[in-house]
Amino acid sequence: MARPTTPTPEVRRAYVLGGNRIPFARAGGPYVRASNQDMLTAAIDGLVARYGLQGERIGEVAAGAVLKHSKDFNLTREAVLGSALSAETPAYDVQQACATGLETVVSLSNKIRLGQLESAIAGGVDSTSDAPIAVSNRLRRALLDLSRAKTVGQKLAAVAKIRPKDLAPVAPNTGEPRTHLSMGEHQALTTAQWEITQAAQDEVALASHQRLAAAYDSGFFDDLVTPFRGLTRDANLRADSSLEKLAKLKPAFGLGLDTPATMTAGNSTPLSDGASTVLLGSAEWAAAHDLVPLASLVDAEAGAVDFVHGDDGLLMAPAFAVPRLLARNGLTLDDLDYIEIHEAFAATVLTTLAAWESEEFGRTRLGLDGAFGTVDRAKLNVHGSSLAAGHPFAATGGRIVATISKELHRRKAASGSDAPVRALVSVCAAGGLGLTAILEAA
Amino acid sequence: MSDTYLNLVNSGFTKKVAKQLGLPQPSPLRRYEPGQPLLQGAVLVLGRGSESDALAGFLSSDWDLDVHRHATPGTRYSAVVLALTELTHPDQLSEPVLAVGAVLKELPKGARVVTVSRAPRADDAPAVAAARQGVDGLLRSLAKELRGGSTGNGVMLAAGVPVTAPSVVGALRFFLSTKSAFVDGQLLAVDSTAGTLPDDWAAPLAGRVAVVTGAARGIGASIADTLARDGATVVAVDVPAAGEQLVAVANRVRGTALQLDVTADDAGARILEHALQRHGRIDIVVHNAGITRDKLLANMTPDKWDSVLAVNIASQLRINEALLTSGDFTDAPRIVSLASTSGIAGNRGQTNYAASKGGVIGMVRATAPLLEAFGGTANAVAPGFIETEMTARIPAVTRQVARRLNSLQQGGQPVDVAETVAFLASPAAGGVVGRVLRVCGQNMVGQ
């Protein structure tokens, strides 16, 4: 008897069915005693409660954290075990700096698209309040030698290598390992390169706060956010912010450059704590669970720039990835109804837009006939973004995907038309990375 | 919320001291647990006539109870049912009432006395009306004489409602059971023969979808638990700010959480959309969300007055309007709304709250007829002093006094309110139309 041949899988759509996150807190705030596992578990449990998934065996849960304790090697699985989901739900951890959250959405969606999964939960979490603190390399080596030592002499020799200065703990920072510059200093270089003014950055920040506040006030987040530890809205949100107040803030980055320092605490994201989740599923799974598909993942493109040796800024990878992504899908910026560009800094958004509007950048760097295009600001970050909400690194992707998927569905339903409604999601990340995706309203 | 005093007077040396000093001696109340038998001993059914025979027959045959028609010396009856529907003159009260009196001293703790009588009407013959109204005074006084956590309640039938009508039987079962532990001295009217008895008394809400507002904590959380225990699928609703606790409740009852401000204009539409999309139907709505903003009227601010009225009554009216016009609230629907003894008897410093809760009573009375065509009802539950986070904030001495001011000499638990809500939400309560049932241990104030 001939062995059966395995079928070539057919690709189907994967849908965003909903999301849940906890409000984002500022570092040292209400979540100061909450671990990554606590926050991710709370975000999952809120999702379970909203969608009635108690005891459900989800196909797979993927999440991650950028600042991660080594004991959290199975962070996502541990969060699942502590949640109301079935303990038979598999899970894995992902780590791709600030792109972690979006990457979990992309990779799980692809598994659903290929038929490997019927349902999935994507997510991310980060705590800068409960960040791991490591010991120095010299102390670590001495302690490891000590653990391997068999004789008293070997043990004494190991201990003798320790010097008082080795005892100082090594706190985590957002510095790039190869340049030792912080992310803010890197962006300051790019900001100066593209001659972005503080006024322009403050306008982006103000719009972010005003739009996020309006979304909360209208009840938009009623089914996207679940309070945690007494916090009911993002702690960084300043509904009463103004250009005057923002203009008064002192520059925080780029102080050592020849050009004016323009980046302040007001137009940069603060260190944050928080977690987010996104429920994904096939059309069949959604129907069987009486859930409404909000949007589907059309395609995704990762990028990276050589910020170490080249001229490109650390956070400019999306400027290259998005043109490739749109070209592959036969789309232009005008075919998109919403543009979500993660506001690591207001200047990150503005330098990306400036690059796309530049004839020279378009010709020399993107290989186009001219400028890539102009983003209609009315389509940009319509319900606010990280400047207002805060940015717990790995949790940002889930926040953006859940928010814009709800908005896509709402717009499509209100239009009463079959015309596609699309959003672009762009997230920059440490290491010169970027991840971008297209979502389409279901 | 523990009651230290109750614990002290029920154990050891302090029990003796309390007895000698003549202090109030509240008895711990037995509450319902799944699998618990309806009664722990024989039931004495008193009263003459074919209707009392029919009732005794039903209890014996349908519920397999050990029914006695005359007191057997030496028997400790767990319940006494006074079947008085056929009274035509106050003279006829003597025999059954004195027969109850003869067994009172022998009742075990947590016993039940239930009267079944007819509601007096203006067109009754004067002697008939006197006899029927007499039951009211009798029952309320009898309930005040009972001790040891025993309660006395009555079912009052409208004209033409047979003693074995679903709601008569349903109410009787509720009063006999431990589910009515903190309901005392109450006469519940049964207005019609509507309603159906459940296939399984352990899951009377099987297949029903219930929305509970204010479900994140306290009484609302207990209502969600109790409706889920009775088989309902629960949509737990509370304001977004209470979302964390709401998640815990929704996950515990395996329902869904809906974060929503009930005062929003589209609250009714969003509740309907959620229930229908996610659960396919909507059968029960429990309006439990409520706030207090106490202030003497002389010092009342517009903000305090308006917010209480907006949350406690205006939101309910608006949500009910959406339910009634949806065309989807038509399968023996149930509205159960939380009133308060403050809304009946009044309470100093609570003009706003009492106006809203009095409003609830008027609202259910006027809403119930609109649902009758669908076999639906609207009723209210009026809690007295219930041990919650809210009452735990009352100053200690005031709280102690408030607890003792009822026949059971203690505060009720959230579950006592929840059990009463679950009964009124059940298919068996279809004949209870626009009524208020108090859960107050027969509080001394008001009716």
Write a brief structural summary:
The complex is a heterodimer of chains A (442) and B (447). Chain A is of the alpha+beta class and 442 residues long.
What can you see in these coordinates?
The complex is a heterodimer of chains A (442) and B (447). Chain A is 35% helix and 16% strand. In chain A, strands 1, 2, 3, 4, 5, 8, 9, 10, 11 and 12 form a ten-stranded mixed sheet that branches. In chain A, strands 6-7 form a two-stranded antiparallel ribbon. In chain A, strand 11 (422-429) and strand 12 form a beta hairpin. The model of chain A has no long low-confidence stretch (mean pLDDT 95). Chain A is an alpha+beta fold and 442 residues long. Chain B has two domains: 29-190, Rossmann fold (3-Layer(aba) Sandwich), CATH 3.40.50; 209-439, NAD(P)-binding Rossmann-like Domain (Rossmann fold, 3-Layer(aba) Sandwich), CATH 3.40.50. Helices cover 40% and strands 14% of the residues of chain B. Chain B has a seven-stranded parallel sheet, with helices on both faces. In chain B, helix 10 links the parallel strand 10 (284-287) and strand 11. The chains are: A alpha+beta (442), B alpha/beta (447). Chain A binds chain B through residues 42, 45-46, 48-52, 54-55, 84, 219, 221-223, 225-229, 232, 290-292, and chain B through 236, 240-244, 246-248, 250-251, 254-261, 264, 277-280.
* Helix/strand/pairing category of chain B: alpha/beta
Beta-strand residue fraction of chain B? 5-15%
Show unreliable segments of chain A. Answer: none
What's the main sheet of chain B like? 7 strands, parallel
- Helix residue percentage of chain A: 25-40%
Element-by-element helix/strand order of chain B: HHEHEEHEHEHEEHEHEHEHEHHEHHHE
Mean pLDDT of chain B: 94
| Distance between the amino and carboxyl termini of chain B | 27 Å
CATH architecture descriptor text of the largest domain in chain B: 3-Layer(aba) Sandwich
